[in-house]
Amino acid sequence: MLKQPCQLFVISPKRYIRAVPDFPQQGILFRDITPLLANPVAFTYSIGELCAHADQLDVSTIVGIESRGFLFGAAMADRLNLPFVPLRKPGKLPAERFSVKYALEYGESQLDIHTDALSAGEVVYIVDDLLATGGTAAAAVRLVELAGGEVAGLGFLIELEQLGGRAKIGGYETTALLSY
Questions:
Q1: What is the pLDDT of residue 52?
Q2: Judging by DSSP bridges, how do beta strands 150-159 and 123-131 pair with one another?
């Protein structure tokens, strides 16, 4: 039998985000989501809010960005009864794939998607835990479009507004549950 909260009410997920100074390096204030993941009510609420945004956009597929986007994206896909497609880091997908490289603050990275993961014109919602500079999100948008999908919107648990990530993803419908 599944354990369900007796009463689900509007909560502030922000109280479940831990600020960790100087991680992973000096001068960075890391936003740790593990306390939110450990609280079933806060996690359920967060998934519900992201699902509400995706549902308004009439999407047909949820796409999650490795790795924490998998936590939110898979739960959303389950709740909305939609397929889930992972965007992976290099060397993780076994079949033919599309790849997009993108710049990070200190270097370069890459995301991959299987070439058969999306059908032409499939309406996609991209999800991740954090929107910072927007490089990863912009790469995810390019990758979904390269694979034939149409991006309807993006959802994030946290947005670091001062880093200007929304500007990199342009005019796509975007939501973040928490802003810092």
A1: 97
A2: parallel
